[in-house]
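Fold it.
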Amino acid sequence: MVSKRKPPVSSKVVLVRCFFSAASLGFFASSVGWDLVPGEALAEGNAQRPKAYDKLAREITKTIRKTVELEESGASLSEIRKSGDPVKGYYRELLTKYDSDARVNGDESFISLKDTFQELGNFYRANGPNSRLTEDVRESVLSKLQSIDESLQ
């Protein structure tokens, strides 16, 4: 008889305990193995992004930027967690509504959002959930957030 095994608890613990919500979400993003191949619909240029996606993407970039800048200013761990906490809900919404939406998943902003979450996840997986971002990672994340904002205009 084959028993069904539950997923390891450690991944759930990382989602709950990670000091920066985006880090835990980035860990999840890298563990589900998102592929970064653009969708065909936007490549053809005839699909329109949903306005709700634009609003969600702006909220994600605003919240991550605020949290990264708060960390850079030397804020406490609890302040950083509190600032980044809304990203968890935004990330779930992004996955459930738009990961399979051809109008969105090939868009530059969506690909950059996934890259941002993956970069944060890779950093925190390698350095631990309580690590402060290095200057290189911080600049890379802020640069990606800027390109997302520009592509949403």
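The two ends are 56 Å apart (CA to CA).
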